[in-house]
Design brief:
The protein has helices at residues 4-17, 36-47, 59-68, 71-85, 108-130, 141-146, 151-162, 166-172, 174-182, 264-271, 298-301, 367-370, and strands at 25-32, 51-57, 90-96, 132-137, 185-190, 193-198, 205-207, 212-213, 217-220, 228-232, 237-239, 242-244, 248-252, 255-260, 280-286, 307-312, 332-334, 343-346, 349-353, 356-357. By secondary structure, it is an alpha+beta fold. The protein has two domains: 4-163, Thermophilic metalloprotease-like (3-Layer(aba) Sandwich), CATH 3.40.1830; 166-369, no CATH class. An eight-stranded antiparallel beta sheet has the order 14-13-10-6-5-18-19-20. It has a five-stranded parallel beta sheet with strand order 2-1-3-4-8, with helices on both faces. Strand 5 and strand 6 form a beta hairpin. The chain is globular. This is Aminopeptidase. One of its GO terms (biological process) is proteolysis.
Length: 371
Amino acid sequence: MKDPRIQKLAANLVGYSVDVQPGENVLVEMIGSERDLMNAIIEEVGKKGGNVFVQLTDRTVQRAMLRNATEEMMKTWAEIDLNRMKQMQCYIGIRAGENVNDLSDVPEEKMKLYNALYSHPVHSEQRVKHTKWVVLRYPNASMAQLANTSTEAFEDFYFDVCNLDYAKMDKAQDSLAGLMKRTDKVRITGPGTDLSFSIKDIGAEKCSGQKNIPDGEVYSAPVRNSVNGTISYNTPTLYNGVTFENIKFTFKDGKIVEASSNDTKRLNEILDSDEGARHIGEFAIGFNPHILHPMKDILFDEKIAGSLHFTPGQAYEETDNGNRSSIHWDLVLIQRPDYGGGEIYFDDVLIRKDGIFVIPELECLNPDQLK
């Protein structure tokens, strides 16, 4: 018997998130062994008159490929997949791998090649900029373990989050997006954090289920050389299969001049990937009311209620501050009291304290209003 929640999610992905139109080509990529959602998406694309194409990826096979890849092979691989991506109008990416650490022992130099020669041109430049796309995780025992819940409890949580009324959330985000577009100076304070920068004339974009599921953020970017001060992130993060904790950055005129974590050496190697990796490409505020605690999965963690993320690397085209990099690493700071609290100021006005919006025009984004 089909789970109606899966069919509802598939219908939302196809009809709302990427809004498939008759005759459009849709690439559905599944990383992992889940098939029920994949089959439901194929059915929904068919109902809309779209043409569906499927990519099935196994992380253990990908690991073997990456460990043995040459630069020439990476370029050919990218050329093949870039040609396919150029023929797509829509992309739905589902991540359902059993082990989030499958790529942790791929040598760093191989991952740098992969990010620069494959992921950047195929995804950052083509898929992100030229298709209607959405990416999501799919619940399994591995994700439940990361969230410290039973598999059944995690599935219930997952469908509550992913089948939220995102059209309602979209309208509620108008006030924050408008305020960010009018803002010059931003200051972020909290334990180990006192950071200042400008977002003047950069713009702001709403995220309400069209690009990510789950969703719930509004993003901008700092003026590239305006960032000064220190930020101490309090959320564990995975990068290329490696877990980083207690990341702390100090900025001078936009550049990360000091960086430390539980693996400071590897952290700095990533930040030295290219010149843009030590500058920030995104500043975003998260507010999904159902997501409260980190689970080392950025699609969930960056949407945590009462959080923000401040991202080294590539800027998005919609809020472009000119920063270019082969990386885009969303690092999350939670400011609710149970995580130490903190404040966000726009042009010297307190707009959020301890994770709760405190000015009337933004109260519609607090958890009790979005559920």
